[in-house]
Amino acid sequence: MRVIAGQYKSRPLRTLPGMNTRPTSDRLRETLFNVLTAGDPQALEGSVWIDLFAGTGAVGIEALSRGASHVTFIDNSKAVTKVIRENLESLGIREGCEVLDLEAMKALRQLEAQRLVADYVFIDPPYADERAYADTLGVLGRSSVLQASAVVIVEHDKRFDPGEECGALRRYRKLVQGDSGLSFYRH
User: Which of 69, 74, 184, 187 has the most CB atoms around its CB within 10 Å?
Assistant: First the structure.
């Protein structure tokens, strides 16, 4: 795994051994960021991100590499958050990021209390945990962490559909690549 573009382009990222963590592939991350920047490499400058179920942190690190001003990485596994911290350290990223070793809903409540407002939220729970998709989208649809124009991106198995609507969030785009899908939501 590597950073695709931006300040840290081509730099390697560590992953956890085994199959318990499924990092977002380089190709899918490239597609995701091509959609978000739509030909404007400066489109993410100064943006604020939440990387939920962050795994290796590859998506949030890619956002930082492309100009995001802040990323909050959230995962409830200490082993996973250790890898995220190691990846940030190996790239020399010491500012503009926070790593929370918390369950997603608890972390979102904490971010609300801190009055964090995000431009982008990336959600990538384990594919088999279909309930996590509905729960997380439902909470986000009512949450103050999303600014009015925020985009919520959900990575999912191509055979699973997280839905057209979830509370106040409506899907406006869906892409399938290999075994994975990306669904894009906003208010």
Answer: 74
Q: What domains sit in the chain, N to C, each tagged with a CATH number?
A: 26-186 (3.40.50.150)
pTM over 0.85: yes
For residue 53, what pLDDT is reported?
96
Number of Cβ atoms within 10 Å of the Cβ of 178: 9
In order of 22, 131, 152, 165, 171, the CA distances from 2 in angstroms are 14, 30, 23, 33, 29
pLDDT at 137 over 60: yes
With tokens 């909050």, the residue in question is 72
One-letter identity of residue 18:
G
Torsion angle, alpha carbons of 131, 18, 59, 182, to 10: -50
